[in-house]
Specification:
Layout lengths: L1 E11 L19 E10 L2 E7 L10 E13 L1 E3 L11 H8 L4 H6 L4 H9 L3 H17 L2 E7 L6 H15 L2 E3 L2 E2 L1 E9 L10 H18 L5 E4 L8 H13 L3 E6 L7 H7 L4 E4 L5 H8 L4 E4 L1 H7 L6 H6 L4 E3 L13 H10 L5 H8 L1 H5 L18 E4 L7 H4 L6 E6 L2 E2 L1
Parallel strand pairs: 1-4, 5-6, 6-9, 9-10, 10-11, 11-12, 12-13, 13-14
Antiparallel strand pairs: 1-2, 2-3, 4-15, 7-8, 15-16, 16-17
Bound molecules: N-(iminomethyl)-L-glutamic acid and zinc ion (ZN).
């Protein structure tokens, strides 16, 4: 049976299958059809077009009149830390009272605080909590997601997190419906206390012990490193990326959040799928990225929450670098996985047009997790992961109504959630 959704006010982000990402001036366009229909069969987009071209096959097509709703592909959140054990409100208050994120981390808070909490939580409880968050972000329009480890910082802790992510991948959100989830191994998120005076020893442990185990259980799609002062150096990032590559793990890395250390050039040399954060960017970083296929991912909710500079996305887009936007959902720097808010911040704070920001949240975000063959646009053969918006007249209505979700319904694989 095919279901045909009719009388769509405007169907956005329609793309030919050959378009895998958009750059430069292409980012200003978000192709659409007014007064449209979309046909879905077995969870996949079979056809779409203008209403006057619709041919209905009796006894085969079920018609659903969506009465002037705007329809778009679902958001792809290409950078999250959605599996964690506890929130960190105390640090939030500390920051209000004047401490910086770095000062809190130097006192043993931050990522180490999350690691301590995670150590004492069972895999089952961690899974239950993460599933609640996952269902929550689906409601605000996220239909594909990447999730990192990185709060374990020990063999058991990292494996526990990655096994939770694997269980989320295998979880039916509705009968027969699974979310597309990518898992990233971020053992090098911070230096655990037992390696406090031996950072290289921890890097060696990641490479010699953790990675082989993660790979043997097939628990990760990507490898990540937090390359930053007081965390991991560029040379340590390179060691880890090279070791990961031997197991077929491609790189997605945290770089240039507080300092430009030259990590982007090295990440690009190691064929990173994406470099993420980029609040601080130098000319050399732009040059490296502009000669590469690496996607630049901005995380404006993190800048908002920590009061950091916003990623200079126009410098990136002006150099024809593909830009994606993601939430960075985590308990320390971004306790929100709401991509509608990311959309608003991108427009309001980073001066992206609604079309640029929407491209960065869909087609380019899908490319940043190598899901561009299956999601991220309205394309025949792609998964029917769709958002239905009521009470807005245009794409701009989404970021304009900041702080609220205008989404009426979310569909994953042809099923309403
Ligand atoms: N910067 C590194 N990692 C996370 C924050 C982790 C935390 O504070 O718990 C981020 O991307 O913002
Ligand atoms: Zn992050």
């Amino acid at each position: 049976m095919t279901t045909v959704y009719t009388n769509i006010k405007e169907l956005f982000q329609i793309r030919d299958a050959s378009i895998k990402r958009v750059i430069g001036s292409q980012m200003k366009e978000c192709p659409s059809i007014k007064n449209a229909f979309i046909k879905i069969k077995d969870g996949v987009i079979e056809d779409f077009g203008i209403m006057s071209d619709l041919v209905v096959v009796e006894n085969q097509d079920q018609i659903v009149d969506v009465q002037n709703t705007i329809v778009t592909p679902g958001y792809v959140d290409s950078h999250t830390h959605l599996v964690f054990a506890a929130t960190r409100e105390k640090e939030f208050e500390d920051r209000i009272n004047g401490l910086t994120y770095e000062q809190i981390a130097a006192r043993g808070g931050g990522i180490l605080n999350s690691a301590a909490r995670l150590q004492n939580m069972s895999e089952d409880e961690l899974y239950e909590q993460a599933l609640i968050r996952l269902k929550e972000v689906v409601k605000t329009g996220t239909t594909s997601i990447e999730i990192k480890s990185g709060y374990g910082l020990s063999m058991e802790g990292e494996l526990k997190m990655l096994r939770v992510i694997k269980r989320l991948k295998e979880t039916e959100l509705s009968p027969g419906v699974f979310m597309s989830i990518k898992a990233t191994f971020l053992g090098a998120h911070a230096v655990p206390l037992n390696y406090k005076d031996n950072k290289q020893g921890y890097v060696d442990f990641i490479i010699a012990e953790m990675l082989p185990k993660v790979a043997s259980e097939n628990l990760a799609d990507y490898i990540d490193v937090f390359c930053e002062k007081n965390y991991f150096s560029v040379s340590q990032m390179v060691q880890i990326l090279e070791a990961g590559a031997k197991y077929g793990l491609k790189a997605k890395v945290h770089v240039n959040q507080f300092n430009a250390l030259g990590a982007i050039e090295k990440a690009v040399e190691h064929n990173a799928i994406s470099v993420d954060h980029l609040e601080v960017l130098e000319d050399e970083d732009l040059i490296s990225l502009s000669n590469s296929n690496t996607i630049a991912t901005a995380l404006p909710s993190c800048s908002f929450f920590l009061g950091l500079d916003y990623t200079p996305v126009h410098d990136l887009m002006d150099k024809d670098i593909a830009v994606a936007l993601a939430s960075d959902y985590n308990p320390g720097s971004t306790p929100s996985g709401n991509l509608n808010f990311v959309f608003s911040l991108a427009c309001i704070k980073m001066k992206m047009t609604p079309q640029q920001a929407f491209n960065a949240l869909t087609i380019n975000a899908a490319a940043a997790v190598e899901l561009d063959e299956s999601v991220g646009s309205i394309t025949k053969g792609k998964r029917a992961d769709l958002l239905f918006f009521k009470n807005i007249d245009d794409l701009a209505g989404i970021p304009y109504n900041f702080g609220t979700s205008q989404i009426d319904k979310v569909m994953i694989s042809g099923t309403f959630m």
